Amino acid sequence: MRAHADRQLPGKASMLRRVHAWESGESCPDDDYRPVIAKTFGTVTAAIWPVAGSRDSDAELVTGTGMDTLEIVTRLRASSVDPAVIEGLRITVDRLCSEYPHMPADQLLVEGRAWLRRITTLLDRHLTLAQHQEILSLAGWLAALVGCVEYDSTNRPAAEATRQAALSLGEESGDAEVMAWAHEMRAWFALTRGDYRGVIAAAEAGSAIAPNSRAAVQLHAQKAKAWARIGDRRQVEVALDQGRTLLERMPYPDNLDHHFAVDPAKWDFYSMDCYRLLGNGQPASAAENKLAETYAQGVIRVGTDAGGVERSPMRNAEARLTLGLIAAREGDVERAVDFGERALQGERKSLPSLLMVSRELGTTIKEQYETEPSAVEYLDHLRQLQAATR
Predict the structure, then answer these.
(1) Do 267 and 385 have their domain in common?
(2) Residues 6+ apart with CB under 8 A from 38
(3) Same structural domain for residues 132 and 30?
């Protein structure tokens, strides 16, 4: 803790008493110590001490506008654009972005594209300058969402075209955050293609546009993931520390389901990915592998509610693949295959990211356990999934 504190901490005896009190539950660290503890463990404060929050998008829509979705659509068709309609559109875009982790990709694409058409049609109406900018910005956010879902579904040409549309809409509206997220999408696309220098270039371009945004946090994470695959440990640590420091300064998001929110638990997900890569070729007991395992267990724990329902199914899938890789490095092929198969079973998938990490596990299993019956079956399943996405 002393190495990560920006001030002088009490003496050893006093600190030991504090730590023992925290560990026993007798007391809880105060706001001065929480950031230091988080930094010591390579995470952010709210990942350890989250802020409770809940939202009801449907109720918010009615409360904020006095209208439900049907009335908003009816008024759009009637050429009526007033502040209540604009607010209703904002809430609707927010709701669609919040459906990303749960709604089937095909359904979200249909809804997202339909609302994108409705919103862009408004640009031909007589609007004030402020309304015009607001609608361009909303269209940019929705285009970014649709592009992400298109890429999840392996429709790469459509995803890239939609990403460029989001970037253009962000430029027209002057919304730097939309522009930065469009660059983040470019970084993500490049990562899954193995274009790691492209990831770094996209991350730097996006960070230059909105250096203090949530998009910048994720751009630092994408850069760290690229450096991990290149094999540069020092640059991984620099990028992770830059992103963690920026995220620590931000308020806790009030909507954790929103696709373009970066919640503190997501940062542990990024760190998991990096340390899994850095642990490749290291002994199973190496610090990198232990860190990757700890982060993966935490991702699954936070991403699953008390009833066993997965709040973050795509993150959980990659966490299981990480645990599978750790098991394979420990010599436990049956456990490795079990984690690998469970990762492929989820209904909501981001196929490019899932396949990228699955290939890492598949390569390790093939190299070490190719003749094992369970390994043969898993590798065949993986080949079938890859063939179906071409």
Answers:
(1) yes
(2) 44, 45, 47, 48, 248
(3) no
Report the pLDDT value the prediction gives residue 24, as an integer from 0 to 100.
67
DSSP string, 101-134: TTS-HHHHHHHHHHHHHHHHHGGGS---HHHHHH
The predicted model scores a pTM of 0.80
Rounded Cα distance, 321 and 377, in Å: 16
Q: Are 376 and 340 in contact (CB under 8 A)?
A: no
Identify the domain containing residue 145 by its residue range. Answer: 106-174
- Position 114 scores a pLDDT of 92
Q: Count CB neighbours of 238 within 10 A.
A: 15
Measured distance CA(264)–CA(302) in Å, rounded? 11
- pLDDT at position 360 is 95
| Total tally of structural domains belonging to the chain | 3
- Residue type at 175 in one-letter notation: D
187 contact partners, CB below 8 Å, separation of at least 6? 198, 199, 202, 203, 206, 219, 222, 223, 226
pLDDT averages per 10-residue partition of the chain, 390 residues: 71 71 69 75 65 44 45 52 84 93 91 91 85 93 96 94 96 97 98 97 98 97 97 96 93 89 88 96 94 95 87 93 96 95 89 94 94 92 85
* Residue 14: predicted pLDDT: 66
Q: How far is CA 306 from the centre of its chain?
A: 22
Angle between helices 233-248 and 264-278 (to 10 degrees): 170
In a domain, 60, yes or no: no
CA distance 21 to 146: 49
Of 174, 205, 233, the one marking the end of a domain is 174
| Nearest CA-CA partner of 228 in 324, 339, 360 | 360
